[in-house]
Fold these 2 entries.
Entry 1:
Amino acid sequence: MRRGSPNVKRDAYERDSLVRAAILIPDTDPGLYRFSKDYVFTSSSKAAGVIKDGNASGPSLWKEVKGGNSLKDYLTSR
């Protein structure tokens, strides 16, 4: 999202850096960015925060398309 939560965003610097590097580029939808290429984040929460444009808990938000299990479910079942 180009503009998510109005609260302080801990991942704003990362998102802005990806925009400057043209890894995140404007989408045809004016409210969104899209990735121009694959990018590996240092944490699931940082990835979720950049995509959501707000603070986010990656383990809780990242879910399988089939089944709906979260990353947190996977990590706690190990």
Entry 2:
Amino acid sequence: MSLRETTSKDNTLKELLNYCPLPPERTPAQFQWGHDKAQAAIDLYIKKCQKKHQGLCVCKSGLVINTSWPHLGASPDGIRYCECCGKRVMEIKSLFSKRNLPPHFVASEYIIEVDGIKYQLKTETRWHFQIQEELAATLSKSADLIIYTNKGILIIEVEFNMEFWNAMLKKLTDFYIHGYMNPKLLTQRLLQKLPC
């Protein structure tokens, strides 16, 4: 969980529980563009990967809850299956403000170049936290981060990091069960204070 100490826990909880959803007509263009481009990103991904991977199949994913942690869930953008690699999580990122730039420029604050030929996701980013939770929820060992722009896609492999996940799991469980979310859900104090 990448929640800072200074971040409002009430606002985080309102967002997680969708207490004040935006009406469709007020959905920001940035979100709509990213949503609309998801299928284009998947199509490019399949085209790029199908020659290297036997029996490639991509399935859309909804909310996944691992029974070991029923208070946690994740929503990958897709799950890829192939005969050579097995199951792999897919996470798509498309940034509206940088849509006309090459993908590696778009993600420069999230990725680092390795050996001048490959990119790696930085560990202390929200994208990394999100993908680690998706990997844990789906019991997968690896994910493909797909960065989409009008110039194409960049695919970055992300491996499951058990040590990182265990530290993250402790923070998430403390937030939910021991510290904040459970008491607010049980008492509904936050819901009663909402102006919307």
